[in-house]
Specification:
This is GHMP kinase N-terminal domain-containing protein. The chain is an alpha+beta fold and 310 residues long. It has two domains: 9-160, Ribosomal Protein S5, domain 2 (2-Layer Sandwich), CATH 3.30.230; 169-308, Alpha-Beta Plaits (2-Layer Sandwich), CATH 3.30.70. It has helices at 60-69, 96-111, 118-132, 140-147, 156-160, 186-199, 201-223, 227-248, 255-266, 289-301, and strands at residues 6-9, 16-21, 27-31, 36-42, 48-50, 76-81, 86-87, 90-91, 151-154, 165-167, 174-179, 270-273, 281-286, 305-308. A five-stranded mixed beta sheet has the order 2-6-3-4-5. The protein has a four-stranded antiparallel beta sheet with strand order 12-13-11-14, with helices on both faces. The protein is globular.
Amino acid sequence: MEGGSAIILSTKQRSSVSIENHDKPYNLFYSSVLDQYFEFSVNNNFKVDWVENDPQSFGLFISLAICELKVKPSKALISIDTNEFYSNGKKIGLGSSASIASVIISALDEYFNLQLSESEKLQKALNIHALSQDNFGSGLDVITSYADCGVVECNLKMANELKWRSLKWPSDLYIKGVITSDQSSTKIMIEKYNHGKDSNQIFFKQLYSEIGHLLNKISTAWDTQNSAKILELMGEYNTFIKQLNEKFNLGIFSDEHKRLIDLARSADIFYKPSGAGGGDLGLVITNSEKKLTYFLSTLSDSNFSIIDLR
């Protein structure tokens, strides 16, 4: 939040990009989600022109990356596989766009032998991800995806310097994802947040100060691997987010999330909506494997889908 440090989990879900030559006299893009091929060319301004069918948002990162790197593929087949970010045909809010931004820059760098440095690749991934979201968002999800080291701590100052801190996930802390039917726009949430912050400056400054102290405590708890303290402090953090949500009308806590919070409370389990885009994913976190097993059974009986995150 603002200048505060965020602790972000890089989940087990991965996207992949492959680039290879083929014997056709044109470029092809293959989308695993659509299971379709799209013919394209690249003009002298490094703009992608889709010859017949336009993959729309599914081809966005190819267009952005080619323009960013100023490369001109010829007779290339570029494949993007994001199947791990989908469940039963529905996209899960796990930061797939950040993942694609990271891997497509690296894939094009390798294919064209550009020999970019690690910091250059990360910066270009941040650039195209920002363009894809109309420059909304912090870019922390891109850094987390690029770092690919499990758990990272990062804030806006560190992000601007292309830095992060790797953390260790406590051995007695368990996490699962719960898929809900609700989805929302990250961009709209950020717009509401910025408007609320400008309209309620006194409230925001006080809350920001309190959250800043809390985030420092959470960071210390991670360093000491104190799972009980982590859960206690995350509960306090959730309370602050609820206040922010109600004051700014952000729409973070849908009716389904509220129901899951009540179910989790009755099972003495921590639950929160995910910080990733889309609003459709919830996180179940506990340091009791027994409680987790019982709660997951309860969720299954209530027809909620569970996914592994690490």
